[in-house]
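Possible regression after last week's pipeline update?

I re-ran a chain I had predicted before the update to compare outputs. Posting the input and the new output here so someone can diff against the archived version. Not blocking, just want to make sure nothing changed silently.
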Amino acid sequence: MRRYHIIWIWVLAGIVASHISLARPLPLSARPTQSKFEEPFRYGGALTVGLGTIQTLDSQAALDVNSQQVISCIGEGLYGFDRQGYLIPALAKYLPEQKGELTWIIRLREGLKFHDGENLDARAVIYTFYRLKNVRADDPIVNTIFGNIKSLEPINKTTIRVTLHKPDALLGYMFARQELYPLSPRQVERYGNKYGTVTAAGAGPFRLSELISGEKLVLERFEGYWDKERPYIQKIVFKFRETETERLHDLSRRRIRVLMNLSPKAASALRKKKKYWVKGVPGKRLMQLYLNTERPPFSNPRTRQALAYAIDRKSLADKLYLGWAGGSNSLFPPWHWAHRPEFSGLNYSPEKSRELLLSIRPPLRFPIKFSLLYTQEQRFAGAAWLLKKQLEEAGFDLRLKPLPKPEMLDYLYGRGDKDRNEFSAALEDWGGNPHPDSYSYLLYHSGSSYNKVCYSDYLVDKLLDEAKSISIQEKMRPFYYLVEDLVTQDANTIYLCLPDFIFAYSGIVRDISSTPSGLLDFSRAWLKK
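New output (post-update):
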């Protein structure tokens, strides 16, 4: 692939930066918070929610979305996000204050309490951080995301000094992640390894009242929550059901009022009944096709680009998700502030695909054969077969190889006895915290252990590192815009679609919405009598 000249890069960065500056953006510390929903009357009562089983209520160990949903009600971060992924204060009173390149000050709200009555102060926040470092000491994602924090020190009961190894203007995003939701030291020490299985004590809008394993979990309104107006709901009852069929049956019998994580097929059928509100909002996890840049045939960038042009993403998304998915041709979701709205990417063009393949020297031997790894989940199996059919017409021959997810990840990361050079391409979804580095640095910086495609580019590394040193969030955009362009043109990852997060609820439920983290916000929901 033709490399961008470094002078062009910085000239373009200057142009984009000048364009952004004309809009007079607010600095990070002055971003507006979410406005409150105003209603003349909001009824509390009990809300019943259908959910699959959960693994744990320990925010530092939860990896499944069901556990994370419940934890988002029990706990809360020092910061949260608005709909575009901008940082807003939560348990912290203000956004982080920078005191030099490597020092930040975090100020907590006064009078914060955990559900067990203990004070939520600087000591508890620091305890939570160092517990994470101990509990997941060998976890590469924890080390990558939080490894830049050198130390946390209390200045007083509500003030914390954070020292970094190197500059990072998006420090606050770390303290918005569930892994750093403050934990009550008393509860954690009392229950030890049982914490998260029999109890949990956070500082979120709801406190744990009852937990019957495999059956239900009851949360009650936390009267000591810092926002005295919320939550409006008095009680949430999560009813655990193994299958979607069981959850749909409960919804039809009014045993539950909210049903989460609907499949596209069930959502389409439910919408036709017109008895419930069925909503699909842009999700957080992009379905992606990873290409091994160190192994033929994808060691040649033209072959990768030809593959990208040969995929009809809209057709794939419509057939796979029945209209419950958006198009995506970028490493950032379309809703994210780091995504350039006018970005075009490598869109479907069979003519360009064929032209690129025929221009490669020495000439390729058709069909171009490669293996595709994917997990045995239905959506990935469906996507694999759709890709195989589409790419056959473009001159590619896919050999499908379904694997259990742990084994596939072993290949991608070269773990155990698996050699990452043994795979050519793999299907996976990726997403998470709205931190832009979750979508960029983790996957494409040459120093990241999550760089599955073996991508290495000096300019991309430099842009990602430089973005961290800028103190105003809006001024980071030009750097992420350029990373978006460079990575997409390299075509080491083909972005297929962004499935919707789908949920349904009955007519008495009001003001229920999803967060940028792909969870439901029950703290603002209320019931109509």
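Follow-up from reviewer: compared with the archived run. Confidence is low (pLDDT under 50) at residues 1-13, 15-40. Marking as no regression found.
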